[in-house]
Amino acid sequence: MIEILMVDDDEGDTFMTQEALEEAEFVNNFHVVRDGLEALDFMEKKGDFSDAPSPDLILLDINMPRMNGHEVLAWVRGHSVYKSTPVIMLTTSSSEQDILKCYENYANCYVTKPADLNEFNNVVKIIDKFWTGIVKLPRNSRS
Amino acid sequence: MIHVLLIEDDEGDAFLLKEAMDKTQFKNTLHHCCDGIEAQDFLQDDESSRPDFILLDLNMPRMDGHETLKWIKANDDLKDIPVGILTTSSAEEDIRQAYKNYASYYITKPTTFEDLQAVINVIDEFWLRTVKLPRRS
Q: What is the reported pTM?
C-alpha cells in the first residue's frame, strides 16, 4: 500500500485528485494537508498527526499560505529521512522560473494542473500509472 | 522535440530501448553513451548537446551509474536535468542510494521486449507528454 501525501490549499483540486485516485488502477492511501506547515507536522507526526504514516510519495502545490511549495521542497530535501522521498510538483504555475527552481532543488518532476476537469482526472491517472505502477519507490522513508 | 540521453553499456539493451522509443507517439532524439566517462565527455562538449532527459543504467564499466548520477547532480549546469534509472538491479540498497543522490525515478528493466515496450510507453506518456521539463534560457 502506497501512502500518498497531497499538500495543497485548493479543496477542489484535492477532491478531484482523491476521486481520480479512487478510480485508479493501484491501491493507495491518500492524505491531504492544506499548507507547508501542516505538511511538516504530518511528516514529523506532530499534534493531530501523531499517528500519521510516513509518506511514500508527496504531491506538492507551490502557491500556498504560510509556507509555500518551494520552502517545503527545500525542507524535505534537507531532511535526513525524507531526503529520498519522491516529490511531484502539482501546481497551476507554468512559469519557467518555478519549473527550473523546482528541478534545481531536486523535485522529482513537475506537472501543471489542467483547468479542465476531465484532463485533470486523466493527469492524476497518468501520475498514478507511472509512480505506483512501474516505479520502484525507496523503502527507507516508509513507516 | 525532446532530446534524450541514454547511458547504457549493454548494446543489446540500448538497441531494444532505441527501438521501443522509436515506437512511442512523441517525437524525440536519442543519443547513446556507453558509460559514465563517455557521458561526461558528451555533456561537457557544448551547450547544444544538453539533453532534456537522461535514462541511466547502474552497472557499467569505468564509471557506474551511481557515480555518473552524483556527478550530474553536483554540476550546477546539469543538476536540473531529470535522470531516470533503468537497470536490472532491484537491490534495495541501489534504489535507496539512487533516490538519495536525486534520481528522478527508479525502474527495473523488464526481461521481454513486449514488457520493455510497455514500460517505455508509460515513460513516454508521463515524462514526454505530461511532465514540464526544465528549459534553460
A: 0.95
